[in-house]
Amino acid sequence: MNRRQYLSLVGLAASGAATGCMGTPTADRTQTTTEPTTDSVTGTDAPPTGATDASSYAVETVASGFEHPWALAFLPDDTRLLVTERAGRLALVDRDSGAVEVVSGTPEVFARGQGGMLDVTLHPRYPDEPWVYLTYSAARSDGASTTHVGRGRLDAENARLRGFELLHAAEPFVESAGHYGSRMAFDADERLYVTVGDRQFKDFGPDHTAQDLTTEHGSVLRFEADGSIPDDNPFVDDSAARDAIYSYGHRNPQGLTVHPETGALWESEYGEQDGDELNVLRRGGNYGWPVADEGCTYGSGRPIGVSHSDRDDVVAPAYTWPCGSGGFPPGGMTFCSGTAFPAWEGQLFVGGLASRALGRFTVDGREASPAERLLTDRGWRIRTVAEAPDTGHLYLAVDAGDAPVARLRPA
Question: Measured in whole angstroms, how far is the alpha carbon of residue 280 from the centre of its chain?
Answer without folding.
Answer: 14
